[in-house]
Amino acid sequence: MAFLELVEVTKTYDGKRRAVENVNVAIESGEFFVLVGPSGCGKSTILRLIAGLEPLTSGYVLIDGQVANDWPPHARHLSMVFQNYALYPHLTVEQNMRIVLQAQKVPKEEQIRRCMEAADMLGITDVLHRKPRELSGGQRQRVALGRAIVARTPLCLMDEPLSNLDAKLRTKMRSELRRLQRQLGMTVIYVTHDQTEAMTMADRMMILHAGRPQQIGAPLDIYNHPDTPFVASFIGTPPMNLAEAHVLEHVLLLQNERPIHLMHRSLPKAERVTIGLRPEHIHPAERGEGHVTAKVAHIEWLGNETLVTFELTKRLHWTARWNGQWNMKLGEVASFSFDERALLFFDEHGKRIDLPIRGEEVRLDG
Amino acid sequence: MNERVSPVFPPSPWPGRATQAARRTAVKSWVEGMMYLSPSLLLFGVFLFYPLGRTLYLSMFYTDYQGKPTEFAGVAHFAELFQDGAFWHSVKTTFTFVALTVPTTVAISFGLALLVHEKRKGIGVFRTIFASTMGMSVGVASVIWMLMYNPAVGVINRLLSTAGLAPVSWLLDPDTALYAVAAATVWMNIGFTFLLVLAGLQNIDPSLYESARIAGMGYWRQLRMVTVPLLSPTLFFVATISLIQALQTFGQIDFLTKGGPVDATNVFVYAIYREAFVNYQFGFASAQSIVLFFIIALVTFLQFRFVERKVHYQ
Predict the structure, then answer these.
(1) d(CA A364, CA A340)
(2) In angstroms, what separates the C-alpha of A135 from chain B's closest C-alpha?
(3) Which one, of A53, A131, A293, lies nearest residue B314 by Cα?
(4) Interchain contact, B211 vs A82, CB within 8 Å
(5) CA B260 to CA B175: how far, in whole Å?
């Protein structure tokens, strides 16, 4: 039996526009589950519905198999880490952590013991008697985590807890959070808009767009087999290259003007498709190989790799990710080849079309 | 802070010149600063500094009925003041009045703000109603209360008689007059203080309450652990301005009781007014004003010294 289950969960604020629509998911005990999507996609709303901070419009929230729709937040035995940390500015770090336990009438010695333990775990023992305003952003973040730890609830909800930290600290905290979660065996539901965070931290994740769940699965599964063009473009940096195409025998006509020949890949029956290709599947053309030529529209040197953007048509730009430092010039015409097997197809309704793959790599020209 | 710092000059072979140049820059910067300040300095000068200086000056003179100083009195007015029973009576009346109005104003505006802060349908109507006394002048408000307190036709006595109670001459009875004026004053002040407290409440981060709900804190515990500490700067501010306002009460006394009956409502400022513009004792009245000035300064200082410790600034 799943630990937490959402069944047909829908939420509307004004009775018309749905902030969250038809969410179904079962989260297992001990899982690190990430809700990810662009801002305004309803991910925080889902978290608040689970916490009981807001009532559902329809559907069910099941905790341990019991319908928990009407349970008040504290009866759900969970803790929550807020984006702004929600620390009480007038209380010290220790009081901030203990206030949770006081409300639950935990004996005083036990309060102090748990508090010290959590502080030790998080490395904030030195600042226990300081007020939040005297702490750095990273320390505040740890105190917020500490509050979740001392509560010892089986479920912890985190609403973009790392988004107020600088990039370096964020990367560090990602792994630290995961380590803590495993160590404590907590179930975590984690909201973020940052797909890198989702990819690196999640056991499983749900991608949301405009209040609707797009896909649920393990990060790499989703990366390799995105169900919709939205998921394809949302997960991965730089995003997957997408293009509308007409299917003509062995040729794909991109945006009605750029033909691409495929050799090793059978094409879908549909007439109009959206194709997707990850930047890492576009390679520099090798001698004697079929390739596409295009103008270089933009180059970014990242040090160990180079992002090259090609202008296939006026409105269609594709980005390639190449290892090493490539000495290219803007406006120069260059050629590339790509891995045909990696090409993804989506039908008119945005569903992925699965096709058998015939052979090896392919020639194409443009 | 962006402080203007005079430039530091390197040691010069002609030390005299360098200091001269530095002095010139300093003077220039001072003049420039004064020009920015001049509009407010002018207004303060005309309406505050000059009257204050003039009052201090007059407090040391005997005056004629036009307020012109006639004879130097030194500290005679002050000496007389401290032996004057009427003076001490007005001091006592004023502090009773403060004790009646300030805590009530703060408590009621806090209560109303808490009610209106709840998210309910149509709550905006109540917000407007509660704040509306702010838009009413002391004169209008006084007339309303005068009518309500009227022993014969006033709504309060009518309610009393429906309840089978004897009518009370609210403003004419020395035992009730101060309470009656205090009640009217609280009502007048509440509009503004209510808005201040509400603004303070709305400034508290809602996630703090959400966090409290998740932790299982009930309404009263949230009020005690979250709302009151975080609102304390606002409450302190409201208490301070209400206090100063109460010490300076004049309008409603003039409208409702004229300091009577039998000096029962003869608060400080009203006593000063009578001394100056009814008895034409401008020198003596000025001395009282000076004493009032120091009393207000002292009380405000004490309030900051002892109450502010319990305030949590963020």
Answers:
(1) 9
(2) 13
(3) A131
(4) yes
(5) 11
Tokens representing A119?
């502080």
The letter for the amino acid at B100 is L
Report pLDDT for A187: 92
Could you count the other beta carbons within 10 Å of the beta carbon of residue B246?
A: 22
Q: Is residue B242 within 8 Å of residue B193, measured between CB atoms? A: yes
**Are residues B213 and A74, on separate chains, in Cβ contact within 8 Å?**
yes
The structural domains of chain B, ordered by start, are: 31-76 (no CATH), 79-310 (1.10.3720.10)
Domain A238-353 maps to which CATH number in 3.40.50.10490, 2.40.50.140, 3.40.50.720, 3.30.200.20?
2.40.50.140
Q: Looking at chain B, which residue has its C-alpha nearest residue A97?
A: B215
SS3 call for A118: helix
Q: CA of A229, closest CA in chain B: separation in Å?
A: 35
- Mark yes or no for CB contact A151/B215 under 8 Å: yes
User: Are B20 and B9 spatial neighbours (Cβ–Cβ below 8 Å)?
Assistant: no
Q: Are A301 and A336 in contact (CB under 8 A)?
A: no
* Contact yes or no for A53 and B226 at CB 8 A: no
Over residues B289-308, the pLDDT tens digits come to: 888 888 888 888 888 887 77
ipTM over 0.90 threshold:
no
Q: Does domain A4-230 have CATH number 3.40.50.300?
A: yes
Residues of chain A with CATH 2.40.50.140: 238-353
B121–chain A Cβ distance below 8 A for any pair: no
For residue B313, the chain A residue with the least C-alpha distance is A90
- pLDDT tens digits for range A39-84: 888 899 999 999 999 999 999 999 988 998 999 999 888 999 998 8
pTM greater than the 0.90 cutoff: no
How far lies A363's CA from each of A2, A284, A336, in Å? 48, 13, 11
Report pLDDT digits (tens) over A245-258.
888 878 888 888 88
Asked whether B247 and B294 are in contact (CB, 8 A), the reply is no
Query: Distance from CA of residue B310 to its chain's centroid?
Result: 21
